[in-house]
Amino acid sequence: MDFTAKLAQFTADSTLPDWVQEAVKGMVDEAQKSVRSNLELDAVHTELRAANIKIEALILELAHHRRMRFGAKSEALSVDQLDLFIETLESDRAELEAHINGCVEPKPPKVKRLVAGRQPLPAHLERVIHRHDPASCDCGTCGKALVKIGEDVTEQLDVEPARFFVHQHIRSQWACRACETVTAQPIAPAIIDGGMAAPGLLSWVSVCKFVDHLPLYRVEQIAQRTGVSLSRSTMTQWIGKIGVSLEPLVELLSFYLRLRTSWHADETPIQQLAPGKGKTKRAYLWAYRSNDLDDGPPIVVFEYQPGRGGKYAHEFLSGWQGHLMVDDYSGYKALFRAGVTELACWAHARRKLFDLHVATKSPIAEQALKWIVALYDVEKKGKDVDCAARGQLRQQEAKPLLASFHAWLTQVHPTVAPGSSTRKALDYTLRRWPALIRYAETGNLPIDNNPVENVIRPIAVGKKNWLFVGSERAGRRAAAIQSLLATAKLNGLDPADWLKMVLEKLPTCLNSDIDDLLPFRRAA
Questions:
Q1: Which domain holds residue 354?
Q2: 313: buried, middle or exposed (CB in 10 Å: 19+, 13-18, 0-12)?
Q3: pTM of this prediction?
Q4: Alpha-carbon distance 371 to 436, whole Å?
């Protein structure tokens, strides 16, 4: 039915229906404009929210890179951030005592200031004595005899550059005229038969390359400055033969590592030369380290692989069962489905929150960092106690902290905007929570993955010197030698001295005695 005609039946004014129709049409148009405006406003808000999230993520990334390049690498909170979510009882007590004593605050005891100065030089270094006495024992003023009343001793540290010298072996030959035989001492077996390099030189070249990360052309230049010619091709052959000789020790190192029930694992990319293309491709150096809280000497084993696929970790750990401390890389997930128990790293969780706090001064990130600081304070208390005492300490102090921290996280998490950097940092912690708190169940599991990161960091820094690995075989050889030298360092041995000893004894060492050459066994 026509709306205008129907309205005309109820009014005598012929203009009213047209006016009402125009008014209704105007209201409809206004309503449609309002709906369109609201839709456009919602779209603008959505775009603005996405832009803010993107800006926050970029600010966080920029702050992280600035801190890595220019700022302090430490993730410790500053002094004014260490008040751990509890009332400062000492301050309250001091205030009450001041009121009781007539508002006179007692003076704090004076703390003896440590005198800054040069540290004494190491006592084990050789001392070359230089005495400076007067030219005459008679007094230059009155001529009478001088009496020694004391002496002033000052020390200077000095160094000799690499000193090359030659071992000259003279073997006399003796003949028997009666039976016409000749007798002489045999040449002792060596790693490189007939080679000119003594074990000390082989050790020095190896340590320069794999500990100090010097390319061989720089080692060649060091030798040339003392008038000694060491060609790169010759040193390369030495390294190859040393790697073959040390293979039994590396296999033993892996065997003893497999006897441990908890490991750390991490990996770092390495550039490998692609033959025939003049380019490089990405390979990976995998690191597996023993847990310092377990009994036994520390062990680290490096494995060189052409990729980062989880199959490489699965192959290396085939048949092993225990606790594995790793980051959130998906390549390890198959191991956890196969029976290995996952441990998550609190240092990784802290790092995401710390970068967020540095970039945005987020109060949520700051509060979360305080919880984590409290967890590490518990670990400091248990650092020098045995496993049983550490486990009891974690039960009494760490587990209640973890429970309170989790309750706070679940309360705060829904209030943070999805997709924001704060939400992502909280998501990481909550997603890995079961693996993060597993360490607190016992006294012999680590809280973070820092031990393996510390042994892999020198290699990551050394890559700036040698740039790439020449071949997969060279990468595997380097990983084997670095496993032994890094384990020697972890056990407090000088890598050069240890390797020299091994190269001297290995050619004549029986298979039953080869354990004595491992870098965590000091040979008699």
A1: 346-441
A2: buried
A3: 0.75
A4: 13
